[in-house]
Amino acid sequence: LQLEAGLHRALEQRQFELVFQPRVDLGTLRVRGIEALLRWNHPELGRISPLEFIPLAEERGHIEAIGRWVLHEACRTASQLNARHGLALTVSVNVSARQLRSSALVDEVLAALAGSGLSPRLLELEITESALIEDMAQSEQILHRLKAAGVRLALDDFGTGYSSLSYLKRFPVDVLKLDRSFIGQDGADLQFVGALIAMAHALGLSVVAEGIETPAVMRSLQRGACDEGQGYLFARPLPLGDLEGYLAGAA
Ligand code: G
Ligand code: G
Ligand code: NA
Ligand code: MN
């Protein structure tokens, strides 16, 4: 209840913040992009995870406004970061199921790109399988319009739901993000993961592994020709200032 009361004022009171987790090329170990992750700094409850407030925001109709803020903030930050450091990092933004069902999403993405000057090919939208199956026909149409705008599309959390390969054929996705529960930390499942990576490559997709915490897991993924990786081994999600420090150190 306290969350609900605070949610509709959180935007105007500037209580939201984005943190950024680097995404690394597993071949060269260079940073290729960043994932924008939302945080709510609640005045009494402290920092609240999106897992707690995104579902509530969707239910109460706040997700459109919050999603718009995230898109603009992520594009603006990436554009400035790239300009300041002479980089061409991709920024990945998470899109919720409710956002994907609204055709306003396409216009908002275009507005965020125009407002920030970020090249469309440097914006990647992360969509979960569960969001896609809520209304497949509508999702498909919106994804095709986003594709036409030049934006990259990633299927997020792959390995947690049905993980149907048919979605990879039906929807115009460029990137498959393997969920960290799928990767595991002991290397045991990596034969299966390797086969999945090969299949994704055959379909023309690039593969990103999430939740890499150990060098052993990183090496297995490198052997499996996984394209990129994200995880605590490289960096946690970082506030902008810390990200800039990390980039300076990683260069
Ligand atoms: O950042 P992690 O620390 O806790 O994120 C938890 C979950 O919240 C993840 O599933 C992530 O995809 C989701 N999430 C993070 N930021 C956003 C956001 O800006 N919008 C939406 N819809 N989900 C987000
Ligand atoms: O659902 P999505 O993949 O968008 O969410 C990413 C989530 O994974 C965020 O909550 C982020 O903080 C978390 N995360 C990122 N890297 C790691 C990691 O190496 N280990 C664990 N346990 N969580 C991670
Ligand atoms: Na995500
Ligand atoms: Mn993700």
UniProtKB/TrEMBL annotation:
Q: Which residues form the EAL domain?
A: 1-251
One of the GO biological process terms: regulation of DNA-templated transcription
Name listed for the protein in its UniProt record: PAS domain S-box-containing protein/diguanylate cyclase (GGDEF)-like protein
What is the organism of origin for this protein? Pseudoduganella lurida
Please give the range of the full-length protein represented by this chain. 535 to 785 of 793
